[in-house]
Amino acid sequence: MGCRKCGGCLSCLLILLALWSIIVNILLYFPNGQTSYVSGNKLTNYVWYFEGICFSGILMLIVAAALLVLENVNNYKCCQSENCSEKYMTLLSIVFSALGIAFSGYCLVISALGLVQGPYCRTHSGWEYAFEDTAGRFLTDSSIWSQCLEPAHVVEWNIILFSILITLSGLQVIVCFIRVVIQLSKILCGIYSVITQPGII
Question: Which tens digit of pLDDT belongs to each residue from 36-59?
């Protein structure tokens, strides 16, 4: 029962992280709350991968909902024995948790690439990726951020939001990995129980 409650809490945490990922990703489309840049397609190309909205967001919500259902299904029998049914549900839980790792991992990688590339902004030379060739070194040198003239404070905007997305998706990876470990331990403990008690069928 304790593991079941723990699994349910982890699934609820995934839902919370997914909702925040959607919100943060949406904010990336509106630097300083302005809509003109998204309509003019003057945003960094990595926001169009929908990493926070689709992968760490909607798809993760589906994964979390499926895990909650699996945690709360009682007396479901997919085969003749209760032990077989429980193992089947555990395997399904592992599959969904692995999918969660893949989805959140995608968001983590894309967000990191967006952070390192830097924002698409207007400089004295026109609209460009002003820091694309710095290999992320601009992140620790705020003195060159002023090269981006428009949108105002877009460097800080991108750094903060992409960093939050990285944190949220990283937490999702950890939570899903913990779920995989928990479910694998249940399977292994079941096998160990059968081995140590050969007389029980």
Answer: 999 889 999 999 999 999 999 999
